[in-house]
Design goal:
Structural class: mainly alpha
Order of helices and strands: HHHH
Radius of gyration: 19 Å
Number of strands: 0
Helix content: over 70%
Shape: globular
Strand content: under 5%
Number of helices: 4
Number of domains: 1
Distance between the termini: 42 Å
Largest sheet: none
Amino acid sequence: MQNNPFATMLGFGFGMALVALIVTVLISALILMWAFRLVEKSHAGYAKALLTTLAGFGALFVTNMVLMLMLGWWGILGRVLIWVADFFVFAWMVQLLLKHRDSLSYSRACLVTLVDWAINFGIGLVFFILLMAVGVSFMHAIV
């Protein structure tokens, strides 16, 4: 029986995508815990932040699927509206699941989500700039 190189590469690609997804969820939970600590001045716990991140990603997946079916043909305006809906749904998940001692108000949950998304955007921007610099340096090395 012979191995198919395409199947090997496909399996490797799925494995790497799974590892990237797991690492993303774990790091996102750390960032959410840090954002909660910055806004609420109390510690939420990594398990609660991980549960909130997983539930939030699940809720965002469902929200994206439903709204993409309804607003997908609107183009960029539809994507912006879906992004705003994602923000409010994730803030709702933070309010429901990331309480410390007393209840967390929705406005504070929105602030936690805003800080969380700002930190994620900043980290993503730094990685984008670094990868672009590496790509440009490889292009100059080839030419």
